[in-house]
Amino acid sequence: MTAMDYLFAPEVLEIDLAESSATFNPPLSLTSPGEGLAVRPLAREDYDRGFLQLLKELTSVGDISRDAWDARFDEMKQCKGTYFVAVIEDTKLGKIIGAATLVVEKKFIHECGMVGRVEDVVVSNEYRGRQLGKLAVGIMQPLA
Is the N or C terminus of the chain more exposed, i.e. has fewer CB atoms within 10 Å? Predict the structure, then answer.
């Protein structure tokens, strides 16, 4: 089995959810998001795991070829510290069922500070009601 090509280092997601404002009942964590589910960075291979189909539940995506996907993935990956797309995968099905994006913008104001925006939060219709959207946002808060 080959290693996945992640958008960013998986270690970035080794965060403490207590640093977010989200509370979970029943409890969820990054290591236990639900039976058969895993949280990880977006991977190049997610083109074949339904990531774009998931985004279609949120908004218009269009027809994106594998070449276009690879080119955009490479562009985003080269912008270190800017794009963080976390996904939730149903590991039994090999299908992406949730995602959230954090975009970190570098500013001149606030002494060359940075600001993070959480965007494109989506959970597949079949998996809603399991606190996964809240988990996706909760993951991004400590990173922002």
Answer: N
Residues with Cβ within 8 Å of 22's Cβ and at least 6 positions away in sequence, in order, are 134, 135, 137, 138, 141
Under 8 Å between Cβ of 13 and 41: yes
Side by side, which strands form the sheet with 114-123? 37-41, 83-90, 95-106, 114-123
Q: Report d(CA 25, CA 1) in Å as an integer.
A: 36
Which structure tokens are listed for 58?
Answer: 């949120």
Q: Any alpha helices (H) in 21-131, and if so which ranges?
A: 51-55, 66-78, 109-112
In the chain, the DSSP E strands lie at 37-41, 83-90, 95-106, 114-123
Q: Confirm if 7 and 85 have CB atoms less than 8 A apart.
A: yes
User: What is the per-residue pLDDT across 4-39, written as a single tens digit (0 to 9) for each?
Assistant: 999 999 999 998 887 888 888 888 888 899 999 999
Rounded CA-CA distance 9/6 in Å is 7
